[in-house]
Amino acid sequence: MTRSQNRAENVWIVDDDRSIRWVLEKALQQEGMEPVAFDSADAALARLQRQHPDVLISDIRMPGTSGLDLLATVRERYPQLPVIIMTAHSDLDSAVASYQGGAFEYLPKPFDVDEAVALVRRALAHTHEQEAQNEETLQTRTPEIIGEAPAMQEVFRAIGRLSHSNITVLINGESGTGKELVAHALHRHSPRARNPFIALNMAAIPKDLMESELFGHEKGAFTGAAVQRRGRFEQADGGTLFLDEIGDMPAETQTRLLRVLADGEFYRVGGHTPIKVDVRIIAATHQNLEGLVQAGKFREDLFHRLNVIRIHIPKLSERREDIPALAQHFLARAAQELAVEPKVLKAQTQDYLRNLPWPGNVRQLENTCRWITVMASSREVLIEDLPPEMLSQHQDSAPDGHWEHGLRTWADQELARGVTNLLDIAVPAFERIMIETALKHTAGRRRDAAQLLGWGRNTLTRKIKELDMNVDGSDDDESE
Ligand SMILES: Nc1ncnc2c1ncn2[C@@H]1O[C@H](COP(=O)(O)OP(=O)(O)OP(=O)(O)O)[C@@H](O)[C@H]1O
């Protein structure tokens, strides 16, 4: 049930012109709605801190914050909330700015009151549709991590097996393969699920801030430490601390981390009181930690503490069968974020994406789907609609032309289905197509067709017989 079926629709009217507010208020009340009028965008913004309407109608030019700025704030906080922008200065610029700002509709003044009410009704219908869709998505419960591929099933099994434990886990996998997602799933399915999950990327923190980031600091511990601050370890107390790119942790921090893991307590930077915490560590890296240990860049004792259970996340190119489902998932998500209709990949586009190299893994696929959602011109996405760099990338990685690409995909799929003696199917099919096409070009004359194909006439005749082809056209050559 949508909430609005149980109560009157709440419509906010924002205009500095009292008569407009009055006319709209009366008209909407008559329709059984519950309008609330504001004489400025600032007044509406203040109220927006506490609640939000089902639809908002706003003038553009008002003293103080403009209607377009109000629109921007609303879009940011409530992307699904429809906003109708009206203005007396009805010009192209205002209209364009409204739509670009994400307005649901643009209403030039003076307007017909019935027209305005009809617009509000349409906006409300739109909201209800979206609510219904959201509910549906929740009910169908999209899986949290997509992965039919055997290597991903292995990951799922590991998450399942670890679901009752608090054991330290080391996740290995290239950048963008979903390490953080897996770490989060480990947390969510652990006895700590109700406590915090804190993620920290070692590669993203400046070296000299790392200790205070992890362990916090006391007031005055160093220049700039104006107040006392709790570190990530304290924030994660009772829960899980995910240390991404652990291979980038500086040597001295490694030493401190090792001590915390051994003693279960630490000191804030500049502090003298030991702080006890109960934190589960999940670490991740795209690097070869054993290699770093051998090169003397990672402490061996810390490595052994972290390397209790290891989960390897495969590259996207090692689980190509998951690409269509992942793409569909990301297209749906991007469409929802941008409040547009989801794009659909044509079968050949899916095949094409399956065969790309994907050095950026799942994250690259996710970004590609966002790009498609914004840039593809029609609902159905063709190969040509893909980002230009994907089109050239494919040529770099496999020098296939269009048909060779199709053939490769077909062979892949047949072999995946367990078909054998593939050439017995492919070669006759290939020859049949070549013969039919050549004959079409010579209006059925076999001698000329043989020449186009680079065969002798007799070969062509024999092939036609062998392939049991039913070709039209005169056997002109024979009669000559
Ligand atoms: N199997 C999956 N199913 C659904 N979404 C996925 C999957 N794998 C990754 N993603 C999504 O792809 C994006 C990248 O994943 P994530 O941040 O977990 O990768 P990562 O390996 O931690 O990357 P990095 O090492 O660069 O931080 C995220 O938005 C994540 O939600």
UniProtKB/TrEMBL annotation:
Indicate where the modification 4-aspartylphosphate is found in the sequence. D59
**Matching PROSITE patterns:** RESPONSE_REGULATORY, SIGMA54_INTERACT_1, SIGMA54_INTERACT_2, SIGMA54_INTERACT_3, SIGMA54_INTERACT_4
Response regulatory domain spans which residues? 10-124
Q: Where in the cell is it found?
A: Cytoplasm
Q: Pfam families under this entry?
A: AAA_lid_14 (PF25601), HTH_8 (PF02954), Response_reg (PF00072), Sigma54_activat (PF00158)
Signal peptide as annotated in the record: none
Annotated InterPro entries: AAA+_ATPase, AAA_lid_NorR, CheY-like_superfamily, Homeodomain-like_sf, HTH_Fis, P-loop_NTPase, Sig_transdc_resp-reg_receiver, Sigma_54_int
Q: Which residues form the Sigma-54 factor interaction domain?
A: 145-374
Biological process terms in GO annotation: regulation of DNA-templated transcription; regulation of nitrogen utilization
**A GO MF term:** ATP binding
**GO cellular component labels:** cytoplasm
Question: This chain belongs to which protein, by name?
Answer: DNA-binding transcriptional regulator NtrC
Annotated organism of origin: Halopseudomonas pachastrellae
Q: What gene is this protein a product of?
A: ntrC
